[in-house]
Amino acid sequence: MAGNSSAKGCLTLEGRKRSLENAEGPATKRKNSWGILISQGSWADRSPLHEAASQGRLLGLKTLLLQGYSPNTLTIDHVTPLHEACLGDHLACARVLIEAGANVNATTIDGMTPLFHACSRGSAACVELLLENGAKPFLDQCLPSPIHEACRKGHSGCLEALITWGADVDQDIPYLGTPLYVAAASQHLQCVKKLLYAGVDIEKGRYSDTPLHSAAQQTNADIIKLLLDFGANANAKNAESKRPIDMAIQGTMIERVLLIHEATPCSLCQQCRLCIRKCLGRSRLHLISLLELPAVLKQFLQYR
Question: Structure pTM?
């Protein structure tokens, strides 16, 4: 009898355990899928509006707003429905929320804005929408940076939108460095190109390391060539008195490119291009197309 009672107790306990797993399983899976955005706290108090925005259910979202839900409803971690819509790349939902009065510069307790999440997801359309409606590319030095996130993830479309709307391409965050440093370290060639075309300070990286130092430690020789073509100093030394070539792995294409650059004098043509671009300054590079010069020279100055 004792054995039977023990067996029944085990079966009952096992049954409860399975019931609990079945009840919590889907929710747990959904929570885990949200990664950076959803913590246990914010999951616990997500509103129906958050759910509709995260899943891109436009009709449901409009209905909830008509029923009186605030577009700025916060979770315990200060996540708004607009954060959810941007992270999910749901442009129509983001637009409806903004039209209803959603704060485009709302920050979570981790300092993340809807613009940061749009850049993290790679939603250039959401980035454009947010910027058109007053989102600020830069709020505070201590907050996560949209332009750095776009460069880290290689989302060149988001980066282009940020540049067009006046984001600081030389924004320096001590622990990250500049956007160019991040793009070079992450080996995203298109992002490096867009930053260089925008007139970024090519020697500004992280602490005493330049973007060329960063790129030299990677494997993409095209980025090295591009940085050198835009005037990166191959002899720049960091805090350890190391040049970019000292950071390169021996026998690689990157080392070869740097060695060839050392042995090849810069052409007069190239020196003139760099000098003219420097004289114009970043704020006036867009005026090159208005110069009374042959089209071929304009294209040369613009690296086209």
Answer: 0.81
